[in-house]
Here is the input.
Amino acid sequence: MRYVCLVYFDPQKVFNQSEEATAVLRASRPYDDELKQSGHMVVTEALELPDHAITVQVRDGKMSAVDGPFMETKEVLGGFIVIEARDLNEAVRIAAGIPLAKLGSVEVRPVVDFSKPRPQL
Amino acid sequence: MSTADACGALEMAYRSEARRVLATLIRLLGGFDAAEEALHEAFAAAAEQWPRDGVPGNPYSWLVSTGRFKTIDRWRRQARLQSVLPELAVRVDQPAEIAVPDAVQDDELRLIFICCHPALAPDARIALTLREVGRLTTEEIARAYLAPTPTIAQRIVRAKAKIRDEAIPYELPARSDLPARIESALRVIYLIFNEGYAATEGPNLMRADLCDEAIRLGRLVVELLDDAEALGLLALMLLHQARRGTRVDAAGDLILLEDQDRSRWERGAIGEAREMIARAMRSRRIGPYVLQAAIAAVHAEAASAGETDWAQIVALYDVLLRVDASPVVALNRAAALGMRDGAEAGLSAIDAALAHGGLDDYHLAHAARADMQRRLGLPDAARTSYERALALTRQPAERRFLQARLAQLGPATREPSSER
Here is the structure.
């Protein structure tokens, strides 16, 4: 099954040149390589910080674009890794190995299987 | 070798070897997480190499040493990045002792015992056993238990954390602990079977996948351990399973034992179970599973409901009550007594069991009481009891059954309050 690991962190904690943060950032690339080698990796991207982002909405046929996401929290989406795993627990184990999990948090989301009925809310 | 052959061999190896390889890797690498990653890497390597180089003569050994080597290699690479943990260094330098057949069996038993460890919560034991021993995915377990997948995933994560944090050893229990530990393992398997057989939730009364899995686990334990109760449990599950096709009708409604089509009971499974019971009876340790299996076998042997040897069943319940004095056993004995000595004797035995406590909220106690009252020609009393039972179960098929019984009784003839 396919899962997406969404990596959230507080930029103040990651880009503050502390020893801990530097070690975490240095370990990130090798972990990606490990996941490639083990066959778990589908694709991964790191994201520029939200001050480089623009948020688009269409309402009543009109497009609006605003700077940045409307985020109240300090944690921002910093990147994602799409993985192939046997089940949710394997995905959780892989997510726990992501170095940035030490500074931020990783949300593990299964990718939608379109052969199953859509949720009815 | 063709690619298709190698793929087939790989699939077969996964089904037959994954659990054993994992069990050994946990011992060699010292933890679930490292072992699971090693297992994954071993099979990934097999997918690459087997089509090219052929399937190794001993896939188990190949997978274990490949998984172990890949992990050690990874640890060495990581060690270059971070400072090596001292205990890792020790493990890296240990010589691998892998393949003696007895040791493989021991590894599988270690895996079962640690998954069913009494220090873990019952729910966690079940989830961990299904995933690590049964090789079900988190998603499959969640589907079987109609639970959200993250709930099951959390249970497994917490159980593993507990094993790690409390340093629960990956060892075979000491001889003095063995009976209690076997009991805990058998209990986990029986709970899995029961959840499949008498689903407490959901539209279907049975969830066959869980029953099949429990029987697979039961067979594994019997293969690995010479234990009478393990045989008894497997026999008991097989006897229930032999009747599965006749227990519910096409509409999903319950059919009582006395009304089931006995010609459709699976004679093969019944025969196998009987041999197991005979084997278990020859041993010294006869416990509740063997006795329950023996009772189920008496039912299975009767050509018709009327020919059931109720005297033998009551006698077996008397013995069972001595080893397991639970309210439910007392209730079942009372119901059997009602068949041997008549409804009046049955009703007073059921009332005695109810008075003993622990059954007030058990719907089957009230249903059994209602049944005796119905047979005694006390429709009003029976109605009250059926209604009580109905209020206590949510299972749709059970509810339909009780409602049908109520409908058969017809409308109330007097105020139900006059019931005794």
Summary: Strands of chain A lie at 2-9, 41-46, 54-59, 62-67, 76-84, 105-110. Chain A has a mean pLDDT of 92.
